[in-house]
Every structure is written in C-alpha cells, then in structure tokens.
Specification:
alpha+beta
Length: 358
C-alpha cells in the first residue's frame, strides 16, 4: 500500500477528538467525525470503534496534503467501491479489498493518461487498457503492473498485434496499417546472449501452471505464520532492449491469430448446436407422428368396439355414424341376392351363356 493511502487512525483508532455516536462500551459506533492529532479528518460511519460503511477521509499532513478517500470501509480498511484522490491530483475510482486496489478500476493520471481494467494487490494485473494523452493506447494483458502476454498497441494510423514481455514487444507479431496491409515479423533481443537465459513460452506456461497448483492463483492459503493471504502468478524474467525483424508483407487480415482461433471454436460450437437442435427436432417430429398414429388406431378400435356393442343389443345402426365398419344385416344380404338375380334375367342371352360357360 502506498504511504499516501495509509490512514493514521488505522494504528491508533482512539486518538484525536471525536464527535458522534457511541455504543455501550463507549466505542465509536454509528455516525461520527474524528479530528486526528496530525489534523487528518474522518467523517462517516463507525462500527465497534472502527470505520465501517460510507465515509470521507481527508489527509492534512505534509506528505499527503489535500489527498482524500471517498468510499466504503469494512472494519477500518477500504473495502468495496471508493474514490481516492492523490496529492498530485491523480485519482483512482474502483474497487478496493483490504486497503488495496482489487478488481475493476480506473486510474486517471495527472498527465492525462488513463488506465481502465483489472487490478490485483494494488497493481495493474489481468486485462486492461492504458490510453496515453497523445491518443496511443495499449490493450491487452498485464502482469504485476507490466505489459505481459498478448496485446495490441494502437498508434494514430496503425497498430501492433502480438506478444509482450516486461513492458516490451517481444516475439512474433504484426503491424496492421490503415492502407489495408500488414507486416509480419518478430521482436528479438538486441543482445543475443540474453536469449539463452530466457524460457520459451511453453516452459513459462508450465511453470505458471505448476505454481498455480502448488500455491493457488487468486485463492486463499496459509503462509508460514498461519495467516491467510493471496498469491499472484510469478512474473517472467526481465529482458533488455528489442528490435523488430521484418518478415512478409501481406494484404489486410482483419483478425489476429487468437481471434481466428476463437472464431473457429465459435463456428464449431454453432455447427454442433445446429446439429443437436436438428436431432432434437427430428425426434420430436417422430414422437408426434407416433402419437398421432396411436390416437388414430385407438379411435378406429373404439369405433369398432362401440359398433359391435350396438349390434349385439339389436339396435339399428346408421352407416354415417359407423364409418369404416363393413357389417350388414341379413335382410341386406337377401335383398342383394334378389337384385343380382333380376340383373341376370335382364342380360342378353349371349352374355348369360358366356357367364355360364365360364
């Protein structure tokens, strides 16, 4: 923690003059205002003698004159969202954990530069964007306050996309220009002797994974004295000056290698999702057809059953009420036979003789 951010009341919570609420133990509890011996002033909430809740702490000592913190406290420490204004006029707006910048936050520098992104233990760490006052900016990964990993550095009319290490461009990358072309190449060390002492990316990643497994990254663990703390992954070794060795000049390729890989994975995922959805739709359609066929079969069987019951009772059955049922009364059979005999009698003799011969 920076000296400017440390409050006198952290070490001596009962010092100075206090006007405000107290609890049964005469501790500062509730709303109150404290004037400390070094003339620092805190105005806000207390709980059991410590700052807790929303409050404003104004620094008056020579080293941090005009600095102030406006935000949330938890048991005497900055915790949650808060804004800290530094003596030089720069300010931080974002999340705090245990008196340190942690999580998402934005830092406005007095020279006009702005950083917006992730923080860990008071340092820029994770993904973030640093915009310079002249308009150039770095967008990418950070490790313990430095450019580390994949990132992009944007100039006024072109940008560099590639890997960074120790706040320098290092390894393979490319310059992408506004005139629809890009220059591929790599940044190498000016001093070739330093290369032998550097780990390659695979070795570095393996060590980071081992460190995460042994100690945990972003997780609580107990140190030698039994106190809970947090660990960050180790930083790669520092490197010296680098220079760019140009390679092939090609047409504009709108995506970086990481973006290409991400797009490929997204396409595969979408294709898989479409296949699964088609299979589910086909199964639903087959199940619907099966249910419809079973319903039709049941309806026919039920109609036949009802017809048989009605015929067994000797009731007259209307043909319109009993479709698809080919049942005839005996009288119908006799009538049909008589009609057939009459038709044969009306036939010419030649046709009748031919039928008898057959």
């Amino acid at each position: 923690m920076e000296d400017d951010e440390r409050d006198v009341e952290d070490d001596f919570p009962t010092l100075g003059e206090y006007i405000g609420d107290r609890n049964e133990k005469n501790e500062r509890h509730g709303k109150g205002r404290a004037l400390l011996p070094n003339r620092d002033v805190y105005d806000g909430n207390y709980m059991f003698g410590k700052r807790d809740g929303q409050g404003v702490y104004k620094f008056k000592n020579k080293l941090a004159k005009n600095a102030r913190y406006i935000g949330n406290y938890v048991q005497g420490k900055k915790q949650g969202f808060g804004k800290f204004i530094y003596p030089d006029g720069s300010r931080y707006e974002g999340n705090w954990v245990d008196d340190l910048k942690e999580g998402q936050g934005k830092y406005f520098y007095v020279n006009g530069d702005v950083y917006s992104g992730d923080w860990s233990k008071g340092l820029r760490h994770g993904k973030g964007t640093y915009t310079y006052a002249n308009g150039t900016k770095y967008v990418g990964s950070w490790c313990k306050g430095k450019w580390e990993g994949f990132g992009e550095f944007h100039y006024c009319n072109y940008k560099y996309c590639g890997r960074f290490r120790d706040n320098k461009m290092f390894g393979y990358g490319k310059f992408v220009f506004d005139v629809a072309c890009e220059l591929h190449g790599q940044y190498v060390l000016d001093n070739k002797d330093e290369i032998s002492g550097l780990m390659d990316l695979a070795q570095e990643a393996a060590l980071v994974i081992l460190d995460e497994q042994d100690r945990g990254i972003g997780e609580d663990f107990l140190d030698d004295v039994g106190e809970t703390t947090l660990r960050m992954p180790p930083s790669p070794p520092p490197i010296g000056p680098t220079h760019f060795e140009a390679g092939m000049l090609t047409g504009l390729h709108v995506m970086t290698p990481e973006e290409e890989e991400e797009a490929r994975l997204v396409d595969e995922l979408n294709a898989l999702r479409a296949t699964v959805e088609a299979q589910i739709a086909a199964r639903k359609e087959a199940e619907l057809r099966r249910q419809q066929a079973e319903a039709a079969k049941w309806a026919r069987e039920e109609a036949e059953r009802v017809t048989l019951e009605i015929l067994a009772e000797g009731a007259d059955v209307n043909e319109e009420v009993l479709p698809n049922v080919a049942l005839k009364q005996p009288s119908d059979i006799e009538t049909a036979g008589t009609e057939e005999t009459e038709q044969k009698e009306d036939m010419p003799a030649e046709v009748s003789d031919l039928e008898e011969a057959e």
